[in-house]
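Need tokens for this chain, all 90 residues.
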Amino acid sequence: MYSYNTDTHDQQLDAILRFLFEYQPQSEKQFAYQPVKTLFEQLELSAMYQLFALIHEQLPRKARLLFAAEDYRGKQALVLEVMQHIRERV
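Here are the structure tokens for all 90 residues:
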């Protein structure tokens, strides 16, 4: 009998999306950065594409076009860059 992985990574994706799009005090963002970055780096390929789709839905129209034009590695780098910017923002 075959076993399928039914883990949808909902909690990990939710934590990453909350870090990116929800307002939190800067001290909380700085505290949450490293755990969220670790979650992001450990996502499986399918979960990463699901995250990209969810991020795409949240973006304004022009940002969607730019995000859609990036390849897989470009999207990864862009998300990490945005996460770092959020953490460092004063």
